[in-house]
Amino acid sequence: MRLIISRLMICALVAALTGVLPTTAPAQESLRIAAVVNDDVISAYDLAMRMRLTMITTRLPNTPEVRNRIGPPILRNLIDEKLMLQQAKEAGITIGQRAIDKAIAGLEQRNGMPPGGLDTFLQNAQIDKQTIVNQVKSSLAWARVVRRKFRQRIKVSDDEITETIARMEANKGKPEYRVSEIFLPVESTRREQEVRALAERLLSDIHNGGDFAALAQSFSKNASAQSGGDLGWVRQGDLDAEFEQVVSRLREGQVAGPLRSLTGFHLLQLVRKRADPGLGGGEEKVGLRQLYIGLPSDAGEQAVAQAMARAGELAAKATSCTLMDQLAPETGNDISGDMGTVELSGLPAPIRNVVQDLPIGQASKPLRSGGGVLVLMVCERSGKPDLGQVKKRIAGTLMEERMSTAARHYLRDLRRSAFVDVRI
Hints:
This protein is 50% helix and 18% strand. The protein is an alpha+beta fold.
């Protein structure tokens, strides 16, 4: 793939996009070409909108220095998405509007938004909705391409599942870590320093207040990116020995890296630490209540602090599920109240991390989530899985890991054979 972005081109990119965020009319900017990918075009407007979305969701400031940093990797992401859609088209795969709407509804739910809340968020942020639609469409299309190409080739044996179960039981009582990851592959020695520099910049952004999960969604190249980099609970032996030693020394919330593996660079965040429960640590269902205080997309630090303080006051009053229900109207938000019974594994990682060990009837601390602030309470727990469910989950996890690796290699090969002309 011919994709060489020099320092001069980066400066030109920043200069070209400075006025586009967000004042330049789409009709004018859409005529400017950022890159050509085989027979498809990425406009400067497409790039500007994705950069703006990334800065807002990751809480990075909209400054020339930040645009300078994130512009090239975001352009590469857009190029990858074009390659994904081209491969889907070649395979005869189409993504209908119903699938896109369902995916967007799921996105709203995971971010604590009411139905239609994403449209409001994008409008307030001055972001073209097509930016999200294009991203969702390429993700859905690529998942189908990969599934069709590799599903029958990749197998998980009963012996592998048995070995995993044995290791789970052997590790019972030992330290276990909830880890999130940003993974940046090194696909050639020529890009080694470039990828390391990106990893170091992302680490700097996190230390300066950038949101780890949002950065993972925007930049990480593992399947875990879709869930904000969440790798789940990692047992002894699941990570490389060097990585495990690093994670074991972290405090909750700390981030380590960049760490070099055979395939690329990793940033690792320790979310939580606990004693490994073995097979007893299976997924479960929880009955949830929530108090939700919404915030505008452009809320400043003072508005966020006020919302967090208000949520803290409500949490102090909420000493039971009944009181949670009674306090819901005080938030002035329709999505406060009973969330029903949900599978713990289906919750977004930040929410799952809060509620999985939360005692029944105890309000959580205020949690910044999506477009507002949440207070959560578990009102019931049920549904510990049997051994058959455990085996099924293990098989699914192993399959997902191998599919992710195969997909990454497949996309690398597509890049190498593609014609890519960067023009901005």
